[in-house]
Write a structure and sequence with these properties.
InterPro entries: YbaK/aa-tRNA-synt-asso_dom_sf, YbaK/aa-tRNA-synth-assoc-dom. This is YbaK/aminoacyl-tRNA synthetase-associated domain-containing protein. It holds the Pfam family tRNA_edit. Residues 23-143 form the YbaK/aminoacyl-tRNA synthetase-associated domain. There is one protein chain. The chain is of the alpha/beta class and 161 residues long. It is built from five helices and ten strands. It has one domain (5-155): YbaK protein, CATH 3.90.960. The protein has helices at residues 5-14, 29-36, 68-75, 84-90, 137-143, and strands at residues 19-22, 43-51, 54-61, 64-66, 80-81, 109-113, 121-125, 131-136, 148-150, 153-155. Strands 1, 2, 3, 5, 6, 7, 8 and 9 form an eight-stranded mixed beta sheet that branches. A hairpin with a 2-residue loop joins strand 2 and strand 3 (54-61).
Length: 161
Amino acid sequence: MSMSATLQDCLRSKGSQYEIVHHPYSHSSVETAAAAHIPGDRLAKTVLFEDEHGYVAAVLPSTYAVRLSELWAKTGRHLLLAKETDLRELFKDCDAGALPPVCTAYGMQTYLDESLAQQPDVYFEAGDHEELIHMGTDQFLDLMDRAERARFARRMQGMPM
């Protein structure tokens, strides 16, 4: 699988300037950053949560973890990690575990952690496990303009920047 069609449509509709970065197949965002030789703080990962009202996406650096209490306070919802089987159904044009951050295009409320806005540039999954999209932060924030910006994540112990 290559770039998700939904992501391609978003990039095209925004007139985004980006480059595609190829890397060896990886299983996790930490592995991806290492395989692509990029700083983990600049690699945006997408984590999907759910409750009885539906799904919520959280987009944060790969070196960070979601603080559930902060996300619950921000959303007013008691969200839990979504099931892997649900991800396959919701993101049909993506490989499992390679979700691009444009979840609003999939009809989901999306929260973007402020720490990504502080980076000089951002990388993120293109929908498979071998390609990343790389763009300047201004382009990324424009692409993510329908996401709500908030602080809900913290750096994981022992993670390289």
